[in-house]
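Technical note accompanying the year-one report. For the benefit of new consortium partners, we illustrate the data format agreed upon in the data management plan: each record pairs a sequence with a structure-token string. No post-processing was applied to the example shown here.
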Amino acid sequence: MYVTRSTVVRWETGSRLPDAAMITRLSEALHADVNMMLSAVAQSDECPNVIMVDDRKLILNGGLPILEKVMPNATVMGFTDVAEAVQYAKENRVALAFLDIELRNTSGLDLCRTLLEINPRTNIVYLTAYSEYALDAWSTGASGFMLKPITAEGVREQLRKLRYPFWTGGEGT
């Protein structure tokens, strides 16, 4: 199949998925139904993982309930520690990450790059109180930019603009 072990590990952990051509080749090699394999890939986004990373617990306490309300089918996790967020992303396929730009020990811009190295299909939306970061944020491959405080309507607007959309189970998304 000409696939590295690390690629297979990423498929097994769900951090990456094979493309349609590879699924077809895999179904032939494994004598499995291609429709069943494609269905399994589609189901992997039924309960997407969404994270929010901010070094202030107050922001997480206010933002996480909004994300859960707007995306009721998502698994929503909050992190004040960047290393914990990165570890979570390595172990779980993150569909969407809301990142503060000014984090205590690192930059949200750097965290974005790290998350995209783990999974290039992670949608990144920056959260900040400072609009002057907008130009720097766009150069990282982010899907969106929101000024704090986070609102349900603001989240819905960002969901409509995602590079890699997914089903959230929420109204109007």
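Partners are asked to follow this layout when depositing records. The helical segments are 5-13, 20-30, 34-43, 57-70, 82-91, 108-118, 134-138, 152-160.
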